[in-house]
Design goal:
The chain starts with 8 loop residues before the first strand and ends with a helix. The protein folds into 3 domains: 9-172, Sandwich (Jelly Rolls), CATH 2.60.120.10; 185-232; 237-303, Homeodomain-like (Arc Repressor Mutant, subunit A, Orthogonal Bundle). By secondary structure, the protein is of the alpha+beta class. It is 44% helix and 19% strand. Helix 4 crosses helix 7. The protein has 11 helices and 10 strands. The protein has a 6-stranded antiparallel sheet with strand order 1-2-9-4-7-10. A hairpin with a 3-residue loop joins strand 1 and strand 2.
């Protein structure tokens, strides 16, 4: 990472997986510019969390702020100016080439004619829902140690954010959209069942979306879409609910050590388990464990919808 005392622009890695990397950036430039020409070394998307800057492309310029997603194509050149003294800060999403290609093909039928230029626009809308999911993602990535993160949740959340801002950008710019169906409903149902089998046999493991996709011979993007279509919930939430159901059975059988139970079921810590349990059931594992009757526990387990 750059030395903050000498470089006004710094980057910090928040997360990396085989399909995506996420970085925090902070710019401390004062009002001024346009500065010297810059070169993009990857295809990436920036979502702002604070401040504003202007991206100059020849005689044209666009404004980047918290209401916009900004797209940088690999090999593109541009200059940046800063209209205010407050600086700016945001998040850089760098999808793997295969993930980005899968998403772009979903929304742009002409993509295969220009694979070297995936973004036919420079900015697109960032609506309130995307902004909030982005904000919460960064907050959780910054707060948790890497080994305590749930990779499947991060992968799925980042993929959804990227897909949503791309879909909104294509719609905003009036570009044609074409949804390709590469399989039948029966194929999709079979893939979803294969995912359920994979998850059910790996409750205590740290699983990435890429691993699940490879196991069922699908791309991460299409797997995430197919699974939610077939089950009504994202892959990571389905796994979490499987783990919670298993915890209810263990509590009903008299398990005392909640930390050991949490780790055995793939939660990163006692607190992670407790927080997730409370959000799902409205009470803590300790409270449930001390219920006078175990019939209640078993009924909760049976009624948990996955």
């Amino acid at each position: 990472m750059s030395d903050r005392s000498t470089n006004p622009l710094t980057f910090h890695s928040l997360y990396e997986s085989p399909i995506v990397s996420v970085h925090d950036y902070r710019c401390r430039h004062c009002r001024g510019g346009p500065a010297a020409e810059e070169h993009s070394g990857s295809n990436h998307i920036v979502l702002m969390r604070r401040g504003v800057f202007c991206k100059h492309l020849g005689r044209r310029s666009v404004t980047a702020d918290v209401n916009q997603a900004v797209f940088f194509s690999n090999g593109s050149t541009y200059r940046v100016s800063h209209p205010a003294d407050c600086g700016d800060r945001g998040t850089v999403f760098v999808p793997s080439p295969r993930l980005l290609n899968d998403i772009i093909r979903e929304f742009d039928p002409s993509f295969d004619d220009r694979p070297e230029r995936p973004f036919p626009f420079v900015t697109g809308p960032c609506d309130s829902g995307v902004f909030w999911r982005h904000y919460e993602l960064v907050r959780r990535l910054e707060a948790a140690a890497p080994e305590r993160l749930e990779p499947l949740w991060v992968d799925t959340t980042v993929l959804e954010i990227i897909a949503d801002v791309l879909e909104a950008a294509f719609a905003r710019h009036g570009l044609a959209r074409k949804c390709r169906r590469n399989g039948t409903d029966a194929d999709y149902a079979d893939r979803a069942e294969a995912v359920k089998t994979y998850l059910g046999s790996r409750l205590c493991e740290r699983i990435t979306l890429d691993e699940v996709a490879r196991a069922v011979y699908a791309s991460p993007f299409h797997l995430a879409r197919i699974f939610q279509q077939q089950t009504g919930v994202p892959v990571h939430r389905y796994l979490t609910r499987l783990r919670l159901r298993a915890s209810l059975e263990r509590l009903a059988d008299g398990t005392k050590d909640l930390t050991a139970l949490a780790l055995d079921l793939g939660f990163s810590s006692h607190s992670h388990f407790t927080d997730t349990f409370r959000r799902e059931f409205g009470c803590t594992p300790s409270a449930v464990r001390h219920e006078p009757g175990r019939r209640t526990l078993r009924e909760m387990s049976k009624n948990l919808i996955v």
